[in-house]
Prior knowledge:
The chain has helices spanning 15-30, 67-80, 124-133, 144-148; strands at residues 2-10, 33-37, 41-43, 54-63, 97-103, 108-109, 114-115, 138-139, 142-143, 157-158. The protein is of the alpha+beta class. The strands form 3 sheets. Strands 1, 2, 3, 4, 5 and 10 form a 6-stranded antiparallel β-sheet that branches. It has a two-stranded antiparallel sheet with strand order 6-7. A two-stranded antiparallel ribbon has the order 8-9. The termini are far apart.
Amino acid sequence: MADVLIALGGNVGDVRTTFRKAIANICGMTQAALLARSSDYSTPPWGDQQQDSFINACIEIDTSLDPHALLFTLHKIETKFGRDRKNEQRWGPRTLDLDLIAYDDVTLDKPELTLPHPRLFERAFVLVPLAEIVPDRVIAGRRVADALANVSTDGIFRLADPD
């Protein structure tokens, strides 16, 4: 079994409901155990600034799927919730974005998959929820909490738990 970190994001539709359903799909379709789920955070848009704020979260799962099979499954789940990777604007609005952040201590550099995620340490919208659930996890030689201390968290705030 592999200990895997996945980032969730979206800014179209009822994102928090989408997250709840997507997490259930992730666990069901990958036969994974959910080990941890962060709070949801409102975050400023990345890339194209002329769009609604995003909601971001992270989960930690335990799965026996290999990294490529897991990525394939995550993309199927994104599609199920309305994402069209082929026809979307890069860093534009989306219903659901699922990023494979880390898979155990695996390092991969393939056209279809890079692990750990290549822009992890630039993205406070991933590091904030990640630090909530795995602050001491070391990824690519860096502790998550230490990496978070090196990025601006301006405009990021924790959302109240849904009723």
